[in-house]
Amino acid sequence: MSGEIRLLRAEEISVKVRTVFGGTALLLLYKDARVDMTLLDEAFGPKNWKRFHKEVAGNLFCTIGVWDADKNQWVEKEDVGVESMTEKEKGEASDSFKRAGTNWGIGRELYTSPEITVPLGNNEYINKKVLTKFYVTGIGYNANREISKLEIKDGNGKQRFFWETGKPMGNWIKEEKKADDLEGYRADVEAMLLDSDLPKERIDKALAGLPGYDRKTLDTVAKMLNERRNRND
Questions:
Q1: Edge-to-edge strands, sheet with 59-68
Q2: Residue 184 within a domain
Q3: What are residue 17's phi and psi, to 5 degrees?
Q4: Do residues 90 and 115 share a domain?
Q5: Mean pLDDT per 10-residue section of the chain, whose length is 233 residues
Q6: Domain housing 131
Q7: How many domains does the chain have?
Q8: Is 0.85 topped by the overall pTM?
């Protein structure tokens, strides 16, 4: 057995409406079964994991087994599914598979999400049925694999929800970037500048000098922008 289950990327996280109250939608983050398949393939290899289902007392369970070459045996984790409102068997099979995947660590970080509430316009819902689609467009994690930054936009690209912990450097600087990825760092700082409330002339001046900034200068700019954002929150 080898590999580590990585954290989910923004495009791998789906958003659904849990409920609507007083013109506000409560949103939940979730993963679909394809994400579990992809991460199992990545972490262990397509030929080194398996799944099977069994019924116990009328409930459908899924077991995910991963081959441990050191122990020369399969290591298995399982969970029970909840039936879908539309397709009972398919819904239970998919749900039990995703729950078993969570036991392996896939998407467990989603349980650390903040409460996500989004005000709705009058044309965005009818009888508590929300017509607008929402998407995770930015996410960051801390060293404990907990969500510490979250951005959600609608289908028109409008930001509808934003949250971050406010710690220095925050998650604007992507944790997965390599230390020597200076161009990627500049791109992150550029995004921070464009999203800041600095006067336009200061933003333009900073952007003009950005190609020549070294890592130390970028650190200074990023720290200043995060501190400014924290003061305004």
A1: 49-56, 59-68, 73-80
A2: yes
A3: -90, 125
A4: no
A5: 85 95 92 96 95 91 94 94 56 91 96 94 90 96 93 95 68 43 76 84 88 85 80 63
A6: 6-31+109-140+150-164
A7: 3
A8: no
